[in-house]
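Incident review: delayed structure delivery

Summary: a single-chain prediction request sat in the queue longer than the usual turnaround. Root cause was a stuck worker, restarted by the on-call engineer. No data loss occurred. The affected request and its eventual output are reproduced below so the record is complete for anyone auditing the incident later.

Affected input:
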Amino acid sequence: MNKQVQFIDWGLVDYQDAWDRQEKIFADTLAIKHDNRVNETNTPTPNYLIFTEHPHVYTLGKSGHPEYLLLDEEGLKEKDARFYKINRGGDITYHGPGQIVGYPILDLDNFFTDIHLYLRTLEEAIIRTCADYGIEAGRYEGYTGVWLDADNEKARKICAMGVRASRWVTMHGFAFNVNADLNYFGHIIPCGIDDKDVTSLERELGHKLDIDEVKSKLKGHIADLFGMDLV
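Output delivered after worker restart:
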């Protein structure tokens, strides 16, 4: 039987605001799990799939390298961008308009308790969405995320990933470049990889896409792969 998951699209939301909202849902879910364990109760935990877009922002994961941001305070202001150090895995990345940012806040006890499989399943949903548009995407051995031409010197990344999990509850997620302004990636060493390019659906196809259509396809693939009923 499929697990019920609440789907929410926050639209364009400031990064800090989205992070605060995630932290609240994450903490509430962990509190339910704690109560269940301590009181030997069986209150079901909620599950969420959240889509959003952010104004221009750079985020640095826990093990990230601040020197991979190539802008100073003045440069950030000039580019109308913010910078945050955050508590996910992974290095530095960029979020901005035209990019689907996905925050699955799932209790993996409701699905499968395997972070490696969790990441591969999210990647598969992006790979299938790219295939819907005639683009052959895949994985790059040794790296998370979704890539094009990963087996040759033209390798370029279309989706970055960085997650956090505690007691099998997940937060943070993925950033899928649909119509994103790729120039912003020029001001960082994305995910610490300085010899690989970044791309988007728009760049690959030569035209802007209807982002709502892409979201619809993507959420359908996530639901199928995880066995979710989105409500």
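Verification: The two ends are 15 Å apart (CA to CA).
Action items: add queue-age alerting; document worker restart procedure.
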